[in-house]
Amino acid sequence: MKTRIIHTKIWKDNYFSQLNRAEKLAFIYLLTNESINLCGIYEINDLELKTWVGLTDTEIENVKKTFTKDGRFIFYKNWVKVIHHGRYNTNYSGTKNEIALQRELTYIPDSVSKELDSLSIDYRYPIDSPIIHKSETINHKSETINHKSETNSKYISQDYLKTLKDDEVEMEDLIGNFTCTRRQILDKAEDFLDYCISKGKVYKNYKSALSGALSKDFGRRSKKEKTSKSTERYDKFGNLIGGVTQ
After folding, report:
1. Residue 3 domain-assigned?
2. Which of 4, 66, 131, 198 has the highest count of CB atoms within 10 angstroms of its CB?
């Protein structure tokens, strides 16, 4: 049996609260119907929306236009893609789930995958607020929910990539570990985020994934380099504003 956890604050969410009746019903159904999966791309037809949600043909057409314009869902033929699926979907971690996710992606026809990717390119930035706990992991064997600490959740979710430019402590840590500049780190994080969103790629820990990419592209600093202190200072955009590297 599939499980989806809907946060109760959905009813006070800025975006959700301004939707009309048909849009609210469709929104919840698209996130919780039995076809929803780990990758957030699945087949659905208008008959299902008419039967299970009770929408008319006109309401279905209007709902699709609204959700597409607002960057919440992308529709192509009888397929739907949940934009920023990671922000809605519970974080199902573990090797088996990673394998299952990759397997789901292989079921999507190449023509559909390419079209959905091209249609999704304009939706790089996050939605107003998460509706479903990303920091909760479902353990199907014990059927218990383990709440991650705030610190671990910061590294596990895609928010790590989105807020990195404003986290000076984390930036200093990365600069101290890898032979690259602040600008290179921010560019890599942005490119990595684009890749995850466009391909529906999900990682258990986004800090570890980014660190792996930085290590591959730039290499790690030696122990001697790590002990050298840097007086370089950058603005929030990654531009050097003063200081030199010792």
Report:
1. no
2. 131
Decide if 100 contacts 211 (C-beta within 8 A): no
Mean pLDDT in residue range 193-215:
85
Show which of 139, 172, 204 is a domain's final residue.
139
Residue 120 lies in a domain: yes
- What is this structure's pTM? 0.51
**Contacting residues for 58 by C-beta, under 8 A, at least 6 apart:** none
Give the mean model confidence (pLDDT) for residues 201-225. 85
Query: Is the torsion defined by CA of 223, 227, 231, 237 positive or negative?
Result: positive
Domain extent at residue 207 = 157-242
Can you read off the two tokens belonging to residue 160?
């790590």
One-letter identity of residue 136? E
Per-residue model confidence (pLDDT) at position 61: 96
Kindly report the CA angle at 156 between 149 and 114, in degrees rounded to 5? Answer: 150
In-domain check, residue 76 = yes
> How many domains in the chain?
2
CA distances from residue 36 to 59, 124, 129, 225 in whole angstroms, order as listed: 21, 22, 20, 48
